[in-house]
Prior knowledge:
Structural class: alpha/beta
Radius of gyration: 22 Å
Number of helices: 12
Order of helices and strands: HEEHEHEHEHHEHEHEHEHEEEHEHE
Bound molecules: ligand AOF, zinc ion
CATH topology of the largest domain: Dihydrofolate Reductase, subunit A
Amino acid sequence: xxxxxxxxxxxxxxxxxxxxxxxxxxxxxxxxxxxxxxxxxxxxxxxxxxxxxxxxxxxxxxxxxxxxxxxxxxxxxxxxxxxxxxxxxxxxxxxxxxxxxxxxxxxxxxxxxxxxxxxxxxxxxxxxxxxxxxxxxxxxxxxxxxxxxxxxxxxxxxxxxxxxxxxxxxxxxxxxxxxxxxxxxxxxxxxxxxxxxxxxxxxxxxxxxxxxxxxxxxxxxxxxxxxxxxxxxxxxxxxxxxxxxxxxxxxxxxxxxxxxxxxxxxxxxxxxxxxxxxxxxxxxxxxxxxxxxxxxxxxxxxxxxxxxxxxxxxxxxxxxxxxxxxx
Length: 327
Ligand code: AOF
Ligand code: ZN
């Protein structure tokens, strides 16, 4: 199952609002075939494997997969169809699928058709591995990491809002590699853009993780209810401007929306509720795929104080990372 997760890892950042899934066919302790879910809208891991491998499948062979095989027609056909058609007789799965279209029915269908189904065999590890997908399917929102930095005496900024550099280069490199590069989006409030004009990129990651591919750039989401964002800010003018999403209120000035959209920046409208964005609607917008947007399941909230507060008060923080100044 650990090897299924290793295969599944290739789909990280590619699967949009879906799951990372890997599969292996094992016969007498050796691998016959492998497969994984390569990206949003593409064939699932089991089908990938069974299309890679066209040979006969011995009855004792076991198909290992980290997620219960699906039995629904989604963007691709049900995995259970091809598993049955190809005569796989034993399936071992890591965790049940929390998607309501599957939710145990994949396993039932296989069993009803005489397949021996073993599992869940590593439920906690598999659920943690796919925590973005699991949180989205079970709570309707992404996995949220809140990252903050503070000096040893607890300061996060100067009182007048002037930028205060707290973390050192090594800490920044760490957060680019282990936080920013692992999430679908980085989120900040507009005041952070006004005060610090951050890049919000993964530029300190030394080598692209996958050879031959460009360095991954997560979405950059700016909370800006009245569209105060300066048009000269880095997130709107750098080469990754098309990976910026400004979340604003429907009543924000429409001229500003037009100006942002004209630069290739996405403007998502979310209604306000008691002065903050209505989270239910926000999640809906961020998780719903459109023609050129795959949806997302993980979010890194980088500040500032008001934005952290909004997320904490709403009880939607799954993980907190605080970097403390070394000086
Ligand atoms: C599997 N194997 O490799 C994956 C599964 O829209 P679709 O067709 O891609 O379906 C998405 C749903 O399919 C997703 O929510 C999850 O339930 C399942 N993903 N299932 O058997 C896979 N990626
Ligand atoms: Zn499937």
